[in-house]
Structure formats: C-alpha cells, structure tokens
Structure prediction request, 1077 residues.
Amino acid sequence: MFSRTILTLVCLTVGGSLSGPAARAADIAKGAEIYQSACKGCHEVSIGPPLAGVVGRPVASEPGFGSYSDALKERRSLVWTKDELDHFLAAPREWIPGTLMMQTVPDAEERAALIAYLETLGSGSDVEEGTAALSIDQPVIVAVRRLNESQYRNSIRDIFGADIEIKARFEPERREEGLQAVGNSDLSMTSAGFEQYFGLARSIAAQVLDPARDNALAACSQAGSMDEQRECTEAFVGHYGERLFRRPLTSEERAVRVHTALESAARDGDVRQGLQLALTSLLAAPEFLFRIEMAEPDPGNPGALRLDGYSRAARLSFLFWNSAPDEELLAAAATGKLYQADGLQAQVARLADSPHYEEGVRAFFSDLLQLDGFDNLVKDPAIYPKFSQVVADSSREQMLKTLVDLLLVQQRDYRDIFTSNETYINRALAAVYRVPYPADTAWAPYTFTPDSERAGLLSQVGFLSLFAHPGTSSPTRRGIKLHEIFMCEPTPDPPADVDFSKVKDSKAGTVRGRLLDHMENTGCVACHRRSDPPGLALEHFDGLGQLRKYENGQLIDVSATLNGVAFVGAGGLGQLLRTDERIPACLVRNVYAYSAGQLPAPEQAEFIRRSTREFAGDGYRLPGLMQRMAVAPAFFNVLVPEGLAATGANARDAGATGR
Amino acid sequence: MQRKQAVLQGLLLAGLLLPALAHAGWTRSWVIEWNEPAMYYGADSGVIDPGSDCPAGTNPEIDWVEVLVRAGYSRAEAEWLRDPANPTRSPRNGQNQMAFRGEGRANVYTHPETYPDPGLTGVSGDIGEGFDLDGDPGNGFVSPEGERGIDNAFYRTLGCWKTYRGPHRLSGGALTFNDAMRNGGWTMVIVASGEGDDERNDDNVRVGIYLSEDKLVKGGNGEIVADYTFRIQPHQVFEGIFAARTEGGVIHSTEPSPRVVLRDPSFTRELELLQARLRLTMQADGSLQGLIGGYRPWMPVYQGWVDARGPVIESLTWVELPGVYYALQRGADYSPPGSDGERTHISYALRVDAVPAFVMEPDASREVAQVRSYRDVAEEDNYKAPFAGYVVNGIVPDRSGKYYAGPDAVILPPQSGE
Prediction:
C-alpha cells in the first residue's frame, strides 16, 4: 500500500502534459486497463482466443484455439483490421451475428485505446515507452504485505513462546489472482483494525513482561545503575525489535523506544512498565504488521535491483514456516549468506528439514484452496442436517492432512492428489461419508473403497461442500474453482442480464438438465462448456459431498466431455486432471505468487517454465519444487517498479533507512 | 420355560466363546436418539388438558399451605414456609422444611409411610402401549393396534402426572431427560444380527442393547445425526440381550429375556427389566422405532424422585411424593421368584426411537458382527452411583448450618422486640 501510494505520487510528478509518443503511451496504457477489465477474463483462459497478434490476423485463425463459433468460422476470409475490430468491439453480435463474444466497448475512444494496446501485443512494442528514466542507487521498497492472522500468530508464538494468548478479531483478508498472499499486497489497515492490533500489542507486551514468566531480558528491573538499565533496555529493544521487524532496528527506531522505556521507568519507578511500552510500540509498528520487502542495487548487475538479505530471509521463512525468520536465518541475512548459493542452499535445506515446514505447506494450500471459506460456510440444516461447524472444520483439516501426507510425508507425485484414495477421517467425517470410524484416536488414516466413487481431493467433502450452494450442489461452481485453483484459469463473472431461474429451480430434474436449459443463452455457453463438465462428473456428490445416485428421483448421469476427452465420474475426472499439463505449471506459478505476493512478471516466465520442467523431471514432488525455486536467483529477482526512480525518500518514508 | 432359558444361556455362551467364528448373515445397528416411558396420550394437545386417558387432566396443582396445615404446621408457619421472601426458600435451601410433614414431623420422603396417602390420579382410559407380559389377554390395556392384555401398570399409575403426560416426545419429563441424553449425558446403542439372508424376515435374530461412551451428535437442525460411530462400552450393569425374530421388518423378541438393564431416561438411571420383551420396527428411512418392556422394580423409581430433591419435584410437578409412593405400591403387579409374593415390580414399557449408526467392538477395531454379551469383559469399577448430587434424604442441607430444616426447626423468625 505504501509503495503504491508512493508510486502514484511519483507518477504524478513525472507526468505533466502529454504529446507524441507520450500520448500514444497514454492510449496504450488506457487500452491495457480496458484489456485487463474487459478482455483478459476470457482471452487469457482459453474461453476466447489469445489476442496477441490479433490486429492484422485473419478471423478465426488462431491455430491453438478450437472453440470458435460457427459465425466466426464462416468469416475466415476477413482480416481483423483496426477498422474491423472497431466495428466488432462496438457491437459484436450486430456486426457478426452468432458470435459467442459478449463483451462490448461502446465508447469510441476506449475502442481506439484498446486497439492501440492490442497492436502492441505480440509485436514487441514497449508499453513503457515514455516513462521516466530510472536511477537506482539506494534501497527501495518493492512490496508491502500485511501479515495475515496465522502469520501473526505464528510469529508471536515463535518469538515469545506458545503460552502467549492472542485474543483478537483480525482484519479481513482479500483474495486476488486466486491468492490471499497476493491480495495482502494491496491491503492497508482500517482505524478499527489498528485499534485491534494496538490492543493486542498491549496484551502481548503485558504477558511477555508478566513477572510470573521467566524472562531473562525482563530482568532489567534488577539492573542497578542507570547505565546498566540503559544497556539492558537497549538489549531488550534490540533483540525483540530485530525479531519483530525481521531486520535490525535502525538507530532511530531503537533510540526512540529505549527513550520511551527509560523515561517511563524513571517517571513511574517501574522498569517493566517502561519495557512494556517499548514492546507495545514494536508490536504495533507497521514494520511488524506489514512485511516490507526492500530491494537494493544489484552489484553484479548494474541498473538492476535485488531483494535485500533480510527480505530474502522473510520471504523464505514465511514460505517454508509461515512465520517470521528465526535467529539463525536473520544471522544468515546479516552475514550475506543468503546472497551466496551455498549459504542459501544450507538455509533452505534447514527450513525444509524443520517440523515447521508442515505449517508452511498447510498455509500455502489453505490459501491456494481457499480454505478460509470454511469459516463462514453455510448449509441449509433442513437439507443437510449432518452439516455443522465441526464438519466444516474437519473437512478443511482432512484436505490439509491428505495433502501433507501425500506431498510432504510420502513425497508423492503432486498429481496424485487427483487420484489417490488415501486420506484421513475423523468421527464426524465418517458419518458424512457413511462409513464406520475404526479408531479410538481423533483422526485415523483411511482409504476410500471403490464403491465410494471417491478418488482424490476433489471428491472429498471439503472441496465438494465448499464449492456448492447452501442447499444444492453446483457443477458450475465446482468447475470454475477447479479451473481457477488448479489450472490458474479464472472465469469471468456472468453477464448481468442472465436469467438464472431455470438453474435455481432445484426441484426439477437433475442439475445437468437445468444447466442445458440455462445454456440456451449463447452468452453463457462459452464459459459453461468449460466449467460445467468437471462439475457434472462430480454430481454423484450432493451439496455437502454425500454420495447419491438420484436427484429429484432421476438417475444422475456423471459422464462428461472436456476438450474432446470423455470421462465418467470423479475417478475419470481425476485421471484426466492427472495428465493435464496446465496443472503442474499452475502450481509452480502459485508457489511463486504465494511467496512473492504477486504473479510472475513476463520477465520471470522463463524461470517459471524452467521450474515447471524441473518439477516434472523430479516426479512432480512438492518439496523439491519449493526448494529448487527458493535457491534460484530468479526467485529473489526484483523488477524495477514502473516509472519509479529509486530515491532515498522512498525508503525513508517506510522508516527503513540506515540499514 | 426353564429349558428355553437354558438353551438361551447356551447360545449366549456359544456367542462368548466363538465370536469370530459364528458370523451373522446380517447385522444392523442403531443408536437410541429418544426414549421415554410409553404413556399413551388421549388428549388432542397440551400436557394438562383432559383426554380419554385422564378425563380430568393431570393431577391438579397443589395448595401447599393447606398441605402443611394438614401436616400440623400453624397457618402462619405454613404461609411463612411458602413465602417467596423466606430465605429458606432460597435456591440453595429449597423448601427443605416441606420434607418434615410426616407423623412427628418425620421426613416423608424417606418415611412416606408416616404420611397418610394423599392419592394420585391414575389413568382411567382403556388404551395403553406395551406388552402382554403375563400372557393374560383379559387383564390390561388394549393397544392402539387392538392387541388386548397390554400390561403397563406404570402408565396406569403415573400417566396423569404432568411429568409423564403429553404427546410423543413432548412430555416435560421426556424432554428433560432426553435433552440430557442428547447433550451427551449417556448413549445406548442397539445391534441386531441374524443368520438368514433376509434381514426383514429371519427367525433367528439376536438383539443387543449396550452402553457407549461415545456421545450423541446433533446436526444443524438440532436432531441427532445418523451414521455416527459408537464403540460398545462393556458394562457389568447396563446391557440387554434378546432372542428375537424379524417379520416384515419388525423385530419381535421370541421369548422373555430374564433380566436386562438399560439406561433409564429418568433420575433412576437404571432401568432394570425382568421378563423383558421388545418390538422394534425397521423403518424405510433406516431408523428404528418401537417398544421395550418388562417388569421393573418400583421402589427405585420412587427413590429417584426423592433423590432428585423432593421439595422441588413436588412443587414443580404437582404431586406429593408420598402419593407417588403409595400409588406405585398399589400399582405393582409382579413378584419375581424369591420375593415371597411381595409385588416389588411394576409392568412397564419404554418407547424407543433410534437412528442408524455404526457400532464397533470396544477396541474400535471393527464393527460388531454378532450380538453377544460383553459383561464378562467389563471392568469391575465402572459402575457409577445412581445419583451424584448433594441430596441427603431428599433435600439439600445448608452446609453452612445457617438454615436448618428438620423435625425441631424453629419456623417463624423472632418477632421484633423479643
């Protein structure tokens, strides 16, 4: 948030009146915005053809796209000239009746901007033409990401101990590009949220400095002379400041808190009270509540930036442990070992060898699979009486236990998550699956039997109930989420004028029939023919994920066809997904996006492709993937923020100077 | 009869010795989600309204001042004892002094015979639920289905007490005790196993009713969820084994089970049934509904109410407990062998609603495949006392000694100026 605000200010500063190349750049930029909001949703996920090189291309001629409407196929003699595109974008279905294209761009200026942008796609044109020259000679902030709840809790636990109670309501998260980790890069904090964090800071500080706790650093109260007390306070603030800020404090940051502590102690005669104030200040500081990633000039690559050592440490630690760096990792950052291949390799190996690694993997998949949805999952109790919050929580835990066991403990092929019938259940889930629970422990390993029709994560109650409606299943929702989560292919929102009444009439026939009726609307076909088949294959599971064969008295058909491949049921879907190349590539993208808080930039495409190839070469094993990516130099590459001159003011604004 | 019992015991022994060898042809299992005394309800609605069972409605509310005056207290003392401002009526002390209204101010809960029978309105209707326990169709109620000779003296005796009266699953007592069970107080499971191919029609069926330490679980609609798993808790007391057959999906006991003990939905806790029978119907939705009956000892029933804190029970449920005592004594209709002819037991039936469940062997290793007794593997010390509350002789004494209740208690506070 800080960086975007600063970026905006800098852009405004270097803007001014535009003409010539600058005016064209502005057009292209505007067109890029329109593309992002109106085109990308379909044309980057195979619903519509790719638009790179579309200007000047014959109609319906993209060789890799097989879903052109008959109307476009019949016009293959035409070429997408700028004029033709202008007519088409103004009113697609009037210009070419029968096209599946539903997006219109009525404003002529906007069409011109969009076409100008489309011209740049695939042509090698630089959209950044006309931006200000860069001067990179000082550290710059390249990302500011709010800690999420689990990261906050884990950090406090690891820094102060598991006995610290954290009672607070945290600010809501936001998911972007399928990940909260990306959304957190765009989050600020409300005043109410800050009050919560501040109250929490006071509570934690009070607990840490509770005389009943054996806290050696809090022994400052025993210090005799003023010098001893200052020394002890500086050590206290320095130690906890470094752990909380994930880097050493600047001299100013340390001095102000030491001064506060000593002044309070002198005034009230209570050293602990002073330390408590200092610790509260650290816990409520943006430098703790936000992960501020800093980049510095790369000495080996003039003009380029690299993530600094402490930011590297934090990125690694939150990826592998979902917590703040420990002292050893901070020490490695301080001594420059994280810039060196062997030093980095040693730390990554240590992180991956730790019991905390499981927490990192769980956090990653919790975000990727959108498991936060279980916190407010609602089911109609009249339809699904077995549902309860216990079932919701158990479903989430089942998915995570399954993933950890398959991918971390057994180190199986990642694609096995779509086909494996090995899982864990507890007593509540056994009731939903209608199987006995043969154990006297809270959880037990379980293997789905063939007659259960269950295979893989998608046939677990968690996925099936999370991506369904409160009172019915939803093939569309399940299909959309499958594409979004596992193939990195989001689906655009439906047109505003769609009549959903036929789909919603859950008393009539099977959902397959209702969806077919729904797809009489040509505006819906393009997305539904991609999203629905996987969901229809899962229709033997109701809105809670319970096995069923009939809906409204009619036998449910779970056969489906996707991209010309026919399959049947959850088992068939799992086998199909296991061979889909988009799935491992999507995981690689998401591991990067999760750790970096942003999608890979075009400059990192080769890194992602190489990582995907190595992932395949290693048998699609997750630990290997994460460790290889984390030691690759490209993992810490920093793109020069567009239009941003790296200035000292930038760094000072975030209180990060002097490092 | 003795021969049949010997055969049954032989079967039980065989079951114990060869549990792994003698696999049942089929096994079904349920968990009891509701149970209540089978009290046929003859009114249209409401608990206290008149009906064919109780033409005058339930026992009327009692004027306790008059009761105390009849017991020898002065009117001023009686009114003081019933005055809500009286500190001895605090929640801690209840109306303890109400216990002392027997002859010589004896405690009527522990010595009901010191108190004249105040009477208790019983059921006067002809329809009742249960079993023909004595084999005499000319003696007893007619069942709602028309079967004659239904023995349910418990119902005839207490069926107009508002604790027990009400439509199915709506009487105050049933709601109270089933709430306790459904909230995790106790769990009983039912297993039926047969050796034939058709579970709905099998002449050789056994039914076991067992305790489980696994709690019932409520779903989003507040009802007990089906398909949960329960481990049998071997118990030296609580268990029931029945020889039975199925006919059209109805499980009938084929001969009386000499003695079974279930967990009673009442303050009594143990529902011991002699000459026990059952008739349970497997419903299309997988649930099980029906009756389990037999002769139960009546004194523990009375004692259960006393131990639940006599004055509170009397005030809230509109009965005098000595009246319950005398009524049960009058209604008792069975003398077990060796009881010298004294009618220590009363005919009784329990309504049971159960939902499908998975019932496991005690070690949770596998589902129960065949009904058998687990008493021989029960730990010796797992029997729990009937009532764990601090109730002494039907009242909760004030441990501080500030408020004394007893035969020689001074009732009225000192007058000012004295």
Remarks:
- Chain A touches chain B at residues 379, 381-382, 384-388, 390, 427-428, 430-432, 434-440 (CB under 8 Å).
- Residues 582-638 of chain A form one domain.
